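Renewal narrative, Specific Aim 1. Our central claim is that a sequence can be written position by position from structural information alone. The example that follows is taken directly from our test logs and has not been curated for this report. It begins with the structure tokens describing the chain, in the order in which they were read.
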């Protein structure tokens, strides 16, 4: 009997969980995310036709839509329960539009169902509170999607034509890339300043030693750079050593430190990066699994609330649950008198649902260890602790400050200390060391008892040299924080943006910090020079505000598009008309500091002198394989350098590597090993092609490697991949380590397992490889074939194995799947069972695909034969015509 209610969610895992809650009156189906999108071709958004948008159903979504349409035909109610955010609203709208086009909504009651957690109570409540689709959210989605499309399909072709080797540009992607490149430019331009500090060791009245720092000298308050050289520092040090000290002022105060708000999408990504070392993509993938549900005691349960949110709000149910648990586990002292209420401070905050929290705080992380893998557990524990801590009592510190002038008035010293009096929420959770006053070197000291008027004899004094440090490169956490502070993009999209920048080879993640690559810096320089407004931080943030105004019903979405498109389209046309010389000049000016060393005045002209002719000026050019330096006296002087941008391990000023570069000679083959630049990056090569068509062995550098750090030994180890590690102790299958399309991997028999980031493909040994393979579970199994016996008719072997589409039995070219419905355990299949499966497979005859291939081949063969016959016939006619003409000519001559 068909169900009266059809409920649509996004993922099959979620559908499976919810189906158990709702019973036989409901059919729960998954859309698998978006069912249609704008085709990746020019014209999908038409500005000349009031921004008409052409939507196309994805080929993989057709069957899902067919299933949904079929279920709707016998139902009374269709409930669209996609994710509770703007994107989820859009997916529901696409489903409704497509089903309406198929004319299956005629007698259906269509409603929108929104829930923030996958629990039975939350699902039932959401169904009771069903609503209509929110048109304002849909309009905001349409505007955002159109803007992203128009920017991408307008700027990217300009890049392809004017900047060879570039791949794409995007409205938010390009601004995030600019942040990384601008930071790198700051680091390169940074010049360290010297400064000194002076510290004194004194004795309190009780004899206990303590340290104080020099804060005033000769009547002036010192800032960080006041003691700018050794001479000044020694003068101050001598004054400190000559002084007699008496305390003039003491200050004691109690400082309360409040807990952090519960997690939003952004703060979860930041903290998971800092504490767990997870990238934004990994964090969101793990959070998705926790949200969709885990099997606990035979029941699938969603463990956290929806993980794409800007809200720091907790429901009263969650607050009361946490307060009860705090009182029970930590005691009355750790429970505030009233609940803590948090307000979102993020710029452009939206999505008015809850913060990321456990659905049931009574599920302690220790209890969940039996149901979650290690990474899932670590993320769940982080969310659980943050949520609990957010409702706990403040931490209390006793802070003390002591001011100690010298008797001659030349010197003033100050000592500060802080003591944790009550740990409060810190007993459960600290965000990071440098944010915790109790961990600060100076403030965490406990000072001895002292009072005004006490004499403090000087024991010793010292001066220490320091240098100012350049701004650090962005980590995933700090970049996400910066994007959110500027109001650029949505936190839910940050993970995909950061991944895209790496996939495009615009940036690499080295020691967990973003470093721009050659291609990324060129793209940023081009966009900054010719599309400056559209990669401007303020302009991008203001556009986000307009999109939020659309979602609030305050702006018309097409009016926003019209306002944007006119000036932007004009800028695109201008950029398309740029000459090569204009592009080259702009790039040369922008990146000069990176390629040429500056003198004391900041000029690069001295470093631009051509090393070959001595009179020409070296400048940046852009070729098919990226940038290179060439002499201005070309073609008289043909000197040039292929370039690879790289930075040294200390994160100091970038250096230029001249390519190609010989690294040495391979001791085994006697061939030269060289470092070269290709269209897809830098690689090492063994020998050279001796004749046309030869392909010397090559190996691309790993993402963690720099061209400047490449030597012969490292190159030979790269060229040796894949390398055999040995045979697996359990399966007996060969284990290899290599690098493929998706990065470093281990091969176990026929199975491939991605190598974790913390492991080195060049040094990993057999013991660690076995451990990684075991952690991969079924994916790491060798899938080696096992022989079951021979076929009684032809004596050929029968094998059992696991392939791309699951377990099978094989006889010659016949493969028979071992389906779950057969009830057979693939590893326990007998010869007799295998023979039955093979016989059943043969009885079905050849697959349609196979028959189609044979028919196509037969048709092609027939067509070829017909073509040959036609050609022969045509040639025969030509030959006969020639013979006839020759006879006529001979007869004419004879007459």
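The sequence written for that structure reads:
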């Amino acid at each position: 009997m068909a169900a009266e209610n059809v409920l649509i969610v996004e993922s099959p895992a979620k559908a499976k969980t919810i189906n158990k809650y709702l019973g036989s009156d409901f059919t729960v189906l998954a859309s698998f995310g978006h069912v249609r999108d704008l085709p990746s071709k020019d014209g999908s958004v038409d500005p000349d036709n009031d921004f008409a948008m052409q939507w196309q159903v994805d080929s993989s979504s057709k069957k899902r839509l067919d299933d949904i349409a079929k279920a709707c035909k016998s139902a009374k109610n269709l409930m669209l329960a996609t994710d509770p955010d703007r994107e989820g609203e859009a997916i529901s709208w696409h489903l409704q539009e497509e089903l309406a086009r198929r004319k299956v909504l005629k007698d259906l009651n269509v409603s929108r169902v929104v829930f923030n957690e996958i629990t039975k109570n939350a699902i039932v409540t959401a169904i009771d509170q069903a609503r209509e689709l929110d048109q304002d959210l849909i309009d905001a989605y349409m505007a955002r999607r159109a803007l992203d499309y128009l920017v991408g399909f307008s700027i990217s072709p300009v890049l392809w034509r004017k900047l060879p080797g570039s791949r794409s540009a995007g409205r938010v992607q390009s601004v995030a890339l600019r942040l990384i490149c601008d930071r790198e430019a700051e680091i390169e331009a940074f010049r360290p300043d010297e400064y000194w500090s002076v510290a004194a060791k004194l004795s309190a009245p009780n004899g206990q030693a303590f340290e104080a720092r020099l804060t005033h000298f000769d009547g002036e308050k010192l800032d960080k750079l006041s003691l700018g050289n050794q001479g000044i520092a020694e003068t101050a040090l001598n004054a400190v050593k000559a002084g007699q000290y008496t305390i003039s002022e003491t200050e004691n105060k109690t400082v309360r430190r409040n807990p952090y708000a519960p997690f939003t999408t952004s703060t979860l990504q930041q903290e998971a990066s800092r504490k767990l070392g997870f990238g934004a993509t990994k964090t969101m993938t793990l959070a998705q699994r926790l949200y969709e549900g885990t099997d606990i005691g035979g029941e699938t349960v969603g463990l956290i609330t929806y993980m794409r949110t800007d809200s720091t709000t907790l429901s009263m149910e969650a607050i009361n649950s946490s307060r009860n648990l705090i009182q029970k586990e930590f005691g009355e002292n750790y429970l505030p008198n009233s609940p803590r209420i948090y307000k979102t401070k993020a710029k452009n905050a939206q999505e008015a649902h809850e913060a990321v929290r456990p659905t049931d705080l009574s599920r302690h992380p220790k209890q969940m260890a039996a149901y979650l893998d290690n990474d899932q557990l670590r993320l769940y524990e982080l969310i659980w602790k943050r949520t609990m801590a957010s409702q706990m009592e403040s931490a209390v510190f006793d802070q003390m400050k002591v001011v100690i002038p010298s008797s001659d008035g030349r010197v003033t010293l100050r000592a500060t200390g802080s003591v944790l009096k009550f740990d409060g929420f810190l007993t459960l959770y600290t965000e990071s060391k440098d944010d915790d006053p109790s961990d600060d070197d100076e403030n965490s000291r406990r000072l001895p008892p002292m009072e005004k008027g006490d004499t403090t004899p000087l024991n010793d004094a010292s001066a220490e040299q320091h240098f100012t440090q350049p701004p650090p490169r962005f980590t995933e956490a700090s970049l996400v924080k910066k994007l959110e502070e500027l109001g650029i993009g949505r936190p839910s999209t940050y993970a995909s943006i950061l991944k895209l920048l790496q996939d495009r080879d615009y940036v690499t993640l080295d020691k967990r910090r973003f470093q721009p690559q050659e291609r990324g810096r060129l793209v940023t320089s081009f966009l900054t020079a010719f599309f400056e407004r559209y990669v401007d931080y303020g302009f991008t943030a203001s556009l986000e505000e307009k999109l939020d105004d659309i979602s609030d019903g305050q702006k018309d979405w097409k009016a926003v598009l019209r306002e944007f498109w006119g000036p932007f389209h004009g800028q695109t046309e201008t950029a398309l008309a740029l000459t090569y010389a204009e592009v080259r000049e702009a790039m040369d000016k922008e990146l000069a500091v990176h390629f040429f060393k500056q003198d004391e005045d900041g000029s690069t002209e001295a470093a631009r002198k051509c090393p070959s002719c001595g009179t020409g000026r070296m400048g940046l050019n852009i070729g098919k394989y990226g940038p290179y330096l060439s002499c201005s006296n070309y073609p008289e002087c043909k000197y040039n350098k292929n370039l690879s941008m790289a930075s040294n391990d200390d994160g100091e000023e970038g250096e230029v590597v001249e390519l190609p570069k010989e690294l040495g000679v391979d001791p085994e083959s006697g061939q030269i090993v060289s470092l070269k630049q290709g269209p897809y990056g830098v690689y090492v090569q063994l020998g050279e092609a001796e004749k046309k068509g030869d392909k010397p062995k090559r190996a691309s550098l790993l993402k963690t490697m720099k061209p400047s750090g490449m030597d012969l030994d490292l190159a030979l180890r790269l060229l040796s991949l894949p390398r055999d590690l040995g045979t697996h102790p359990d399966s007996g299958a060969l284990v290899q380590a290599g690098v493929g399309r998706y990065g470093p991997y281990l091969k176990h028999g026929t199975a491939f397992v991605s190598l974790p980031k913390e492991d080195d493909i060049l040094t990993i040994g057999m013991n660690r490889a076995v451990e990684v393979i075991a952690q991969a579970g079924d994916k790491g199994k060798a899938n080696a074939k096992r022989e079951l016996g021979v076929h009684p008719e032809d004596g050929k072997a029968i094998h059992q194995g696991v392939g791309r589409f699951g377990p099978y039995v094989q006889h010659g070219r016949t493969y028979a799947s071992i389906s779950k419905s057969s009830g057979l355990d693939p590893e326990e299949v007998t010869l007799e069972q295998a023979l039955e499966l093979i016989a059943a497979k043969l009885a079905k005859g050849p697959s349609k695909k196979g028959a189609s291939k044979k028919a196509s081949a037969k048709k092609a063969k027939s067509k070829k034969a017909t073509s040959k016959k036609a050609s022969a016939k045509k040639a025969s006619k030509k030959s006969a015509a020639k013979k006839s003409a020759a006879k006529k000519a001979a007869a004419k001559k004879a007459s």
